[in-house]
TrEMBL record:
Source species taxonomy: Bacteria, Pseudomonadati, Pseudomonadota, Gammaproteobacteria, Enterobacterales
GO BP term (any one): amino acid metabolic process
A GO term for molecular function: ethanolamine ammonia-lyase activity
PANTHER family: ETHANOLAMINE AMMONIA-LYASE LIGHT CHAIN, ETHANOLAMINE AMMONIA-LYASE SMALL SUBUNIT
Coiled coil regions in record: none
InterPro entries per record: EutC, EutC_C
Protein name as annotated: Ethanolamine ammonia-lyase light chain
EC number from the UniProt entry: 4.3.1.7
Pfam family, one: EutC
Keywords: Bacterial microcompartment, Cobalamin, Cobalt, Lyase
Top class in the EC scheme: lyase
CC per GO annotation: ethanolamine ammonia-lyase complex
Source superkingdom: Bacteria
């Protein structure tokens, strides 16, 4: 169970998007990762339900570009009612 699952269940959220800063020493300490999941629930959400966008930083995917990708991802999740491996391209 992850924090996204708890947030989703408590708030009844259709989509939860979590931005996490990477830990120093992992190669890119100023990098962010985005974890997104459709309708997360504590008892039923598994890792394969999550969608990850990583390497968000100036030397990878620039934050402004990543923001547009994340917004598009959230729209597609709502349209498809799915996330992770259950999404179609």
């Amino acid at each position: 169970m992850k924090i996204e699952d708890q947030i989703g269940e408590i708030l009844g959220a259709k989509v939860v998007i979590l931005l996490v800063g990477e830990r120093p020493g992992l190669g890119q300490s100023e990098s962010l990762s985005c974890y997104a999941v459709y309708s997360p629930r504590m008892a039923t959400t598994v890792e394969a339900d999550r969608t990850c966008i990583s390497n968000i930083h100036q030397g990878g995917t620039p934050p402004v570009e990543a923001a547009a990708v994340i917004v598009d991802l959230a729209k597609r999740m709502l349209e498809q009612k799915a996330s992770g491996i259950n999404m179609t391209r």
